Amino acid sequence: MTPQPSPRTRTHLPKRTVSIIGTGSYLPERILTNAELEKMVETNDEWITSRTGIRERRIAAPGETTSDMAANAARAAMEDAGINGDEIDLIILATITPDHFMPSTACLVQTKIGAMKAACFDISAACSGFLYAIEIAQQFITTRTYNTILVIGVDKLSSIVDWKDRNTCVLFGDGAGAAILRHRAQGHGVIATRMGSNGNLADLLAVPGGGSACPITPENVGESLNCIKMEGRETFKHAVTNMVESARQVLDDAGLTGADLACVIPHQANLRIVSAVADRLGVPLDRVMVNLDRFGNTSAAAVAIALDEANRTGRMKVGDYVLLVVFGGGMTWASSVVQW
Ligand code: UT7
Predict the structure, then answer these.
(1) Which residues line ligand 1 (CB under 6 A)?
(2) How far is it, in rounded angstroms, from Cα 174 to Cα 294?
(3) What digits encode the pLDDT tens for the residues 7-56?
(4) What residue ranges define each of the domains in the chain, with the CATH number in brackets?
């Protein structure tokens, strides 16, 4: 008898539509304003606002963990999708600020939301993590390995910010965003995704210490090696170039142009980056989701939170084309076109 291919190895099946059936987000209550930062480092509201567009950011409460924030966002996404924890087959969580090196933060979220049938893992792609995770999820659903996947982008950057470094401490905030992905026979979904990386640029944006290459020791503990270091100006240039290029590629894959997009949801690092990307793609700023003024750069959570806000405020109608585009440490970048 000829052996039959297992469901996981079939390649002749038609591509499945992978839809985002629910979104959610969570921001901590505590607001840290530019005025407060003026009292902490040599900075001022005018500099921060004009160079970045950021006016305030959220900071996790004492004892509030990455997994706590992720679970809150996940619950909101599950409610939006109308599913319970038992229906989730896989949890993919993107973060650079896990609760611990081990276990994965995804496993901690599993317990908090009661998704005990799910397999769980974390991924590390810095600010690009949420879109990387969406693409991984879409591959699992397309190959019929899993049906319902919870994707989370979350970061508690306040735990790795050097609060004495004005070059970085004014930029970042804490938060979480989540999406539920599922095959939907009659419906719209992820049309195309492109991911890219350039490890030659790894040093431009990094947390140099705390890992196995440079453990924190009694000798180096005062050097803040466990904090984010960034070459801002260089990172800025690579962000604009790679976001635009990957967005153009993915639009080309989808047979679309900037003019077809109802909404662009970019990484929320800097309003000048967002404006430059929108301008080069030929998309007016009023079709671009911006919330960095209220939340700062929340790394892996940023695009996920913005997606949830766009969803809840009705910025995307059924059938609309939406572009998600991200950039971060690694360096990494990604773009997705979704038909909502
Ligand atoms: O999420 C991952 C991706 N991240 C990004 O894409 C971030 C990319 N980079 C940026 O957004 C911008 O480069 C920054 C917002 C980080 C910095 O803006 P910039 O216009 O590139 O400023 P700069 O770093 O070139 O610094 C200009 C000046 C410097 O002073 P001098 O050397 O010209 O005298 C800085 O020391 O601004 C000074 N400066 C500040 N002044 C007041 C830097 N940070 C501050 C501050 N307050 N917080």
Answers:
(1) 43, 47-48, 51-52, 127, 166-167, 170, 205, 232-233, 235-236, 239, 269-270, 273, 297, 327-328
(2) 11
(3) 444 444 556 789 999 999 999 999 999 999 999 999 999 999 999 999 99
(4) 7-183 (3.40.47.10), 190-339 (3.40.47.10)
